Amino acid sequence: MMLPPGTTFSPEDDPYGPYVALSREQWSDLAEAVPWELDAGTLARLRGLGDPTTRDEVRTVYHPLTQLLNLYWERTGALFGTTHDFLGLTDKQVPFVIGVAGSVAVGKSTTARLLQELLARGPRRPKVDLITTDGFLYPNHILEAMGIAHRKGFPESYDRQALLQFVVDVKSGKSQVTAPVYSHLIYDIVEDERTVVDDPDILIIEGLNVLQPARRRSDGSTALAVSDFFDFTVYVDARTAFIRQWYINRFFALRATAFRDPASYFRRYAQMTQAEALHTAETFWDTINGPNLELNIRPTRGRATAILRKGEDHRVNWVRIRKV
After folding, report:
1. 187, 284 in Cβ contact below 8 A?
2. Which sequence spans correspond to the domains of the chain?
3. CA-CA distance, 129 to 232, in Å (whole number)?
């Protein structure tokens, strides 16, 4: 541990594993001068709705993380080449896969987009693709038939076998792999539309449950998990009370923007009174997103390679990097 002496942690701060902990200042000191500075317009495009991430935050937090990821990518590539030389194989190098996990409204989508942009600007200009696991949610009609429409976002609401097959295909070196497309406007899978992942050097997979461990089968054997195929993982973290408030703030921001679209599934929420909207947002958090965080998402935090811990203002206060 490298945080100042006397630092204490609540149960939410429990590292769950062998991490080196660095304060924001200690982490930022690791950053070197890098050529991938982001201009204000690019950063605005990458930020999620209401996300206050600044250019200073990018330099202080995401530059060191990008440098570390570049080191992992380069060393993993070298190991791949050495192993294939030893085995007499001539296969092309498979994509380096990064998983980004965390709660709804914690800012993991912004983190994933920032990493994609920064990694693509690195010295070797890799091709970096980004996929969200939303596309692997079951369509609404299937969730309704299963009786779990109210548990959308919980692990059982995803077609985990399809997601696993997608990642296996990527890590097997398949040149073109496709994924379903999810629309937040219609709150459902878009029929007959696919996203194509075409032979990237690096693939980022962002989602609530990407760090879930393998499930045990009825015969006692263990199945494969998506996380088995990740080369590096990032968990974006914050206290539950902070995330809850960010979720409510985002709900109100959406009421003033996307929810007003006539095609929006959530249009009715834009027509509510302020009090009705607040009650709705709080209910959604307290009955769906909050329990999902506590039961399924946060327990996977200790499986991450890196943990970014945010404070109430969304700034990353400290970083943990797994030592082994």
Report:
1. no
2. 14-322
3. 15
Topology of the domain comprising 14-322: Rossmann fold (3.40.50)
Instruction: Output the six-digit token pair for 163.
Output: 């997601």
User: Which candidate, 136, 133, 137, places its Cα nearest to that of 207?
Assistant: 133
SS (H, E, C) the chain: CCCCCCCCCCHHHCCCCCEEEEEHHHHHCCCCCCCCCCCHHHHHHHCCCCCCCCHHHHHHHHHHHHHHHHHHHHHHHHHHHHHHHHHCCCCCCCCEEEEEEECCCCCHHHHHHHHHHHHHCCCCCCCEEEEEHHHHECCHHHHHHHCCHHHECEHHHECHHHHHHHHHHHHCCCCEEEEEEEECCCCEEEEEEEEEEECCCEEEEECCCCCCCCCECCCCCECCCHHHHCCEEEEEECCHHHHHHHHHHHHHHHHCCHHHCCCCCCHHHHCCCHHHHHHHHHHHHHHHHHHHHHHHHHHHHHHCCEEEEECCCCCEEEEEEECC
Tens digits of residue pLDDT in 62-77: 999 999 999 999 998 8
Residue 123: per-residue pLDDT? 82
Distance CA 53, CA 46 (A): 10
The CA-based diameter of the chain, rounded to the nearest angstrom, is 68
pLDDT digits (tens, 9 = 90+) for 162-221: 999 999 999 999 989 999 999 999 999 999 999 999 999 999 999 999 999 888 877 778
Residues 6+ apart with CB under 8 A from 145: none
Q: What percent of the chain has pLDDT over 90?
A: 71
Q: Please give the model's pTM, rounded to 2 decimal places.
A: 0.92
Write the burial class of residue 207 (CB in 10 Å: 0-12 exposed, 13-18 middle, 19+ buried).
Answer: buried
Give 101-156 pLDDT, tens digit per residue: 999 999 999 999 999 999 999 888 999 999 999 999 999 999 999 999 999 999 99
**Bridge partner list, 188:** 183
